[in-house]
């Protein structure tokens, strides 16, 4: 078949002119030219509409947070900080913010360390139940957290961890581990094992070779996994609501829920609390967006 194709290409009707670009390059050039011929408004208009629908809710929340109570202006002027002062001081949002930060950072560290160990084992070792274990990790992603509330509550009650931030950290870490292990495993598979073998020949132990050779190359994956764990634990409402009943142990999502009364809602205070809750997440993604995209895409290449 190869000879036939070669004969066909060498026929007079299919002769290639000297210096002419290959057919694949010609097709690629035509596609690029076709994309360049598209009017720019056909690209920018859908993007603008999408951006508008995305930013309007954030602007609306910011508007209620900074305009005076009773105002109906659609422009945030004059601006006031009374709502922020109210939720931070009178509604204990300073304490809620501290608790959420503790839970988020602890979950980040615990998830990253355990996922690093589990991902390395899946990427570098072969064992009989490896396929079944990977399948179990994938299937665990379809289990809602609400189904595990009763057994988790009983376990934490027996361990005397109810009304402790440790219970929320453990629950968040457990539910973040399956996806994190899969991502880290895929990322480690992209690191050639020959790099580790060269370090072993030089006298390094497996742990030292991992720390010196593999770990520096995993930075995008670790940042992706850690940031995902932090943001999820920061925004998660269910576990904090079920395992923390004392007000001084509650987190920001539960604190926002306390601003909603049975008969009325303080929209200014609720919007100010929403802005406080969104600021850390926006800062995290603003600084790590490049690493986040690189980490998730690299970890998904090989599973």
UniProtKB/TrEMBL annotation:
Position of the signal peptide: none
Major location category of this protein: membrane
InterPro entries, sorted: BP-dep_ABC_trans_perm (IPR050901), MetI-like (IPR000515), MetI-like_sf (IPR035906)
PROSITE patterns the record matches: ABC_TM1
Transmembrane regions: 43-66, 101-123, 135-153, 165-188, 209-234, 267-288
Region (Disordered): 1-32
Compartments, as annotated in UniProt: Cell membrane
Family statement: Belongs to the binding-protein-dependent transport system permease family.
Protein name: Carbohydrate ABC transporter permease
Lineage: Bacteria, Bacillati, Actinomycetota, Actinomycetes, Kitasatosporales
């Amino acid at each position: 078949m190869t000879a036939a194709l070669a004969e066909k290409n060498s026929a007079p009707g299919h002769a290639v002119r000297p210096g002419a670009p290959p057919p694949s390059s010609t097709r690629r050039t035509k596609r690029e030219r076709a994309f360049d011929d598209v009017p720019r408004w056909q690209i920018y208009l859908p993007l603008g509409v999408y951006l508008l629908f995305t930013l309007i809710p954030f602007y609306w929340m910011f508007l209620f947070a900074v305009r005076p109570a009773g105002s109906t202006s659609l422009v945030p002027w004059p601006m006031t900080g009374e709502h922020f002062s109210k939720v931070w001081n009178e509604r204990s949002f300073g304490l809620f913010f501290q608790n959420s930060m503790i839970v988020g950072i602890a979950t980040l560290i615990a998830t990253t360390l355990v996922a690093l160990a589990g991902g390395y084992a899946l990427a570098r070792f072969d064992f009989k139940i490896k396929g079944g274990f990977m399948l179990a990790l994938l299937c665990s992603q379809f289990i809602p957290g609400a189904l595990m509330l009763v057994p988790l509550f009983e376990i934490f009650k027996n361990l005397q961890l109810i009304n402790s931030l440790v219970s929320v950290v453990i629950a968040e870490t457990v539910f973040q581990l399956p996806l994190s292990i899969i991502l880290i495993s895929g990322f480690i598979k992209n690191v050639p094992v020959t790099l580790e073998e060269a370090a072993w020949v030089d006298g390094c132990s497996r742990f030292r070779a991992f720390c010196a050779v593999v770990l520096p190359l995993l930075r995008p994956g670790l940042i992706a996994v850690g940031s995902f764990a932090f943001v999820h634990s920061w925004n998660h409402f269910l576990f904090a609501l079920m395992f923390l009943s004392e007000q001084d142990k509650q987190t920001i999502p539960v604190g926002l829920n306390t601003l909603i009364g049975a008969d009325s809602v303080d929209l200014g205070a609720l919007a100010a609390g929403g802005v406080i809750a969104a600021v850390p997440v926006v800062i995290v993604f603003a600084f790590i967006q490049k690493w986040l995209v690189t980490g998730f895409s690299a970890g998904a290449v090989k599973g």
